[in-house]
Amino acid sequence: MGLVFTAVTGDLPMVRRVWSASCDASTGFSSAVKASSMIAFARTEAGVTVHVRGPETAGTSLTCPQGCEFFGVELRLGAYLPLHPPSGLTDLNDAVLPTLPGGRILLDGRDWEMPTEQNVDVFLDRLARAGLLAFDPAVDEIRHGERPRGMSERTAQLRFRRAVGISHRKLVSIEQAQDAARLLTAGSSIADVVTACGYYDQPQLARAMRWATGHTPGELRSGVSFLAL
């Protein structure tokens, strides 16, 4: 079967969704652009590694090794670990957290119990209470074209980049491409997607899909394998 991927919507304030994946054979796939930060856990024969990952600003070809299992938390836009700012983690420049004997995680000089998919909410709540997982509410306002009262445009953009890791302009282009890719994989015509997602013409859409997913619009419509996470 290769790569098996599942995701469920999170019900925590700072979580967009929790996901898991496993590979019963070495499988190549395309990882599409994304704006959210995440915490991911990878289990191999060598043990478990814990990754803090930032936004991805281009589609990337990756391989899921045989026998590997993963799960992770995609954070709500504007949620991040202050010790590992998203701007320093972009494009697979992950921070790999140290792990200790007994399967514990070292963060901020303290050791934390390794979470599972079932109790990762407890882990995140503890991080938030300790100030190690933060959320900037100004991100939602700036994201929707508003500016917090009394904040200059320059300060707003700097604050947005600190919490998200990319500029607001880059976020807009990523979300536009994500919408287009979803429509194409659902079977919408290329012409309809150009209109629905605000591209100038089909060549611009094609360039955007190549950049965002590594595939052409036609390949996406044919069901080529890629992950939006």
Detailed description of the structure:
The chain is an alpha+beta fold. The protein has helices spanning 120-129, 138-143, 153-164, 168-185, 190-197, 202-213, 217-221; strands spanning 3-9, 15-23, 27-31, 38-44, 47-53, 60-64, 69-75, 79-80, 95-97, 99-100, 104-107, 110-113, 134-135, 226-227. The strands form four sheets. A six-stranded antiparallel β-sheet has the order 1-2-7-4-5-9, with no helix packed on it. Strands 6-3-14 form a three-stranded mixed β-sheet, with no helix packed on it. Helix 4 (168-185) packs antiparallel against helix 5. The longest helix is centred in the last third of the chain and has 18 residues, at 168-185. The two termini are 19 Å apart.
Brief description of this entry?
This protein has 229 residues and is an alpha+beta fold.
Topology, pairings included?
Layout: E1 3-9, E2 15-23, E3 27-31, E4 38-44, E5 47-53, E6 60-64, E7 69-75, E8 79-80, E9 95-97, E10 99-100, E11 104-107, E12 110-113, H1 120-129, E13 134-135, H2 138-143, H3 153-164, H4 168-185, H5 190-197, H6 202-213, H7 217-221, E14 226-227
Parallel strand pairs: 3-14
Antiparallel strand pairs: 1-2, 2-7, 3-6, 4-5, 4-7, 5-9, 8-13, 10-11, 11-12
